[in-house]
Amino acid sequence: MKIYSSRKFDVEINNFTLPNGKTVEKPYVRHRGSVVIAPFLDNETIIMIRQYRPIIGKWLIEFPAGTIEEGEQLETTASRELEEEVGYKAGKLQKILSFYVSPGVMTEVMHLYLATKLEKTAQKLEEYEVIEPFEIKLNDAIRLVEDGKIEDGKTILSLLFISRKYRDLLFLLQ
Amino acid sequence: MKIYSSRKFDVEINNFTLPNGKTVEKPYVRHRGSVVIAPFLDNETIIMIRQYRPIIGKWLIEFPAGTIEEGEQLETTASRELEEEVGYKAGKLQKILSFYVSPGVMTEVMHLYLATKLEKTAQKLEEYEVIEPFEIKLNDAIRLVEDGKIEDGKTILSLLFISRKYRDLLFLLQ
């Protein structure tokens, strides 16, 4: 049963049958899913953003990301958000991981894309997005994670996952 | 303005002033915050859980975790969830990272704790929690992350962060 609907998420209450046979009624947040994009200018330089997040009243260091629009293909979302938020088109997009963001309360699944063969276009922000892109070496970004300077979960996860798989990445970037 | 309230989260709509002076009205999910716990039996053996997640209809491999109760101290939440979900008391709890789970739509901040000097007690599940603890080597868990077998964001992040800081961890475990 849908009890609230907004552009980015709905709230629903449904009955679920558990593996132990019991039934539980749970309220939860339905979300269409999202993408996060790690844009590589070369083997070691990435593009990140400083983004103002109104609901927590903070600037966060993040990778560009966004919600899948109704009926949109994943790769289209990745390509669209990359261009809107940082002003680049990707010649190559590769999905390297999918994960649930908060599976106790929200259905959102997020897909991590590597974006390479970048070509400069122009940022196209929505009226209420406050986003400043910047270039940084992957190793320097990892140091920010280790020092607790990056507070956005998807960005910490993405940086550490990519760094862990870096040898593969060098291969992927060919 | 609160438009929905449940045990784990509320939905609110508020006006926010942006750094560019504009005002935006946003619906969002208010969440009290949560903890995730990485329990170490020794320098290389951790305890994880298989948990059934009704709202996505899947079993996920996770670290124990849970929502902060009203007015509860963070460390109490960590200690309580560890005992309830895996049946261990921690002699030592250390917070090593805090991060936002989905800062575009939800206020939830999550705190990662290392739990060491473990002492066996008994699992105390709530009626509708379906959770099976198991022991695994940290390196084997990291391999599950690399192979895409772990789909829970907080768990991927926690495993990679701990593994990245492993030398420090060995020191912390003394």
TrEMBL record, chains A, B:
The Nudix hydrolase domain, residue ranges: 32-146
InterPro entries assigned to the protein according to its UniProt record, in alphabetical order: Nudix_hydrolase, NUDIX_hydrolase-like_dom_sf, NUDIX_hydrolase_CS, NUDIX_hydrolase_dom
GO BP terms, alphabetized: nucleoside phosphate metabolic process; ribose phosphate metabolic process
SUPFAM superfamilies: Nudix (SSF55811)
Cross-referenced CDD domains: NUDIX_ADPRase_Nudt5_UGPPase_Nudt14 (cd03424)
Cofactor(s), by name: Mg(2+)
Entry keyword set: Hydrolase
GO molecular function list: pyrophosphatase activity
Protein name: NUDIX hydrolase
